[in-house]
């Protein structure tokens, strides 16, 4: 698993919360090595309102969809030297509500990003569901300024952004076909609209890269799990494996870039040359 270098434990959060969640992290790097990290954490509106009503924020009359600024400033400090919170705003799309936080950095070489929501949830119970990322979980960078400039993305070892959920209490017996059929029905309803993404955007023109996956506009895709595409593809085995609900065990490496709806990077290190 050393070279399976993307994690997405956020899937476990969605399963544990019993509802749809969208989490995206976009790292934009300018030619001088400065840039921004934009994070969006969204939940389906009915679930968000239910969580808010039972949270401390909800009891105080707040919708519970916006994190405290101090929490986001703490996240900025954890990202590295010179990282600061630029701003936060409420954000909604397609029936999902939450927030968008934008962080600024002066030197990408000093930035450490996990892609994990950590303390950035939209309500108390969502924050509690995210395990804090350790230094070993974080993505780091090396930047060589020039004409052209070169960005090296160093992904964490021994972890995977797209790994199947591991149940804490494994059943004594493997699920029967009938149980798996029921699980699939629940998954289809629970994860409809769920998506988690982590990508890199560089300013200017990409001259060369050894990245395994890029999107339509040229961003480097480190991880993208789109359950709507998974559901449309009808890949029952992948859905059961990814959510830890089936009898077949496996690793995220078996799914990345091989199953519609699951894309990302499997190398330990990725290089991008741009100007």
Structure description:
The chain contains 8 helices and 11 strands. The chain is of the alpha+beta class and 275 residues long. It is globular.
List the helices and strands and how they pair.
Elements: H1 10-17, E1 21-29, E2 35-44, H2 45-54, H3 56-59, H4 69-79, E3 84-93, E4 96-105, H5 124-129, E5 140-144, E6 149-154, H6 177-190, E7 195-202, E8 206-209, E9 220-226, H7 227-233, H8 236-243, E10 262-264, E11 269-274
Parallel strand pairs: 1-7
Antiparallel strand pairs: 1-2, 2-4, 3-4, 5-6, 6-11, 7-9, 8-11, 9-10
- Please report the number of helical segments: 8
The parts where pLDDT drops under 50 for at least 5 residues are 1-18, 57-64, 118-132
What characteristic shape results from the CA principal axes? globular
Biggest β-sheet, characterized?
7 strands, mixed
- Give the distance, in angstroms, between the N- and C-terminal Cα atoms: 34 Å
Mean pLDDT: 77
- Count of domain modules: 1
Class derived from helix and strand content: alpha+beta
Largest sheet strand order = 3-4-2-1-7-9-10
Global Rg:
19 Å
Fraction of residues in helix: 10-25%
- In sequence order, what are the helices and strands, one letter per element? HEEHHHEEHEEHEEEHHEE
């Amino acid at each position: 698993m050393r070279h399976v270098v993307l994690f997405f434990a956020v899937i476990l959060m969605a399963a544990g919360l019993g509802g749809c969640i969208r989490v995206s992290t976009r790292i934009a790097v300018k030619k001088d090595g400065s840039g921004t990290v934009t994070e969006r954490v969204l939940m389906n509106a009915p679930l968000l309102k239910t969580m808010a009503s039972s949270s401390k924020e909800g009891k105080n009359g707040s919708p519970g969809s916006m994190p405290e600024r101090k929490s986001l400033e703490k996240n900025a400090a954890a990202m590295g030297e010179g990282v600061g919170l630029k701003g936060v705003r409420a954000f909604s799309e397609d029936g999902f509500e939450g927030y968008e936080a934008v962080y600024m950095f002066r030197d990408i070489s000093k930035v450490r990003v996990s892609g994990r929501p950590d303390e950035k949830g939209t309500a108390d119970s969502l924050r509690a569901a995210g395990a804090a990322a350790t230094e070993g979980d974080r993505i780091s960078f090396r930047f060589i300024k020039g004409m052209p400039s070169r960005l090296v993305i160093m992904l964490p070892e021994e972890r995977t952004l797209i790994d199947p959920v591991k149940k804490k209490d494994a059943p004594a017996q493997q699920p029967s076909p009938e149980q798996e059929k029921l699980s699939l029905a629940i998954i289809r309803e629970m994860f409809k609209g769920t998506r988690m993404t982590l990508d890199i955007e560089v300013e200017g023109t990409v001259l060369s890269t050894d990245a395994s996956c890029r999107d339509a506009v040229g961003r480097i895709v480190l991880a993208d799990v789109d359950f709507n595409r998974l559901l449309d593809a009808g890949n029952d085995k992948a859905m059961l494996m990814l959510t830890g609900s089936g009898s077949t065990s496996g690793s995220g490496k078996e799914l990345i870039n091989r199953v519609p709806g699951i894309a990302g990077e499997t190398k330990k290190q990725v290089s991008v040359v741009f100007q």
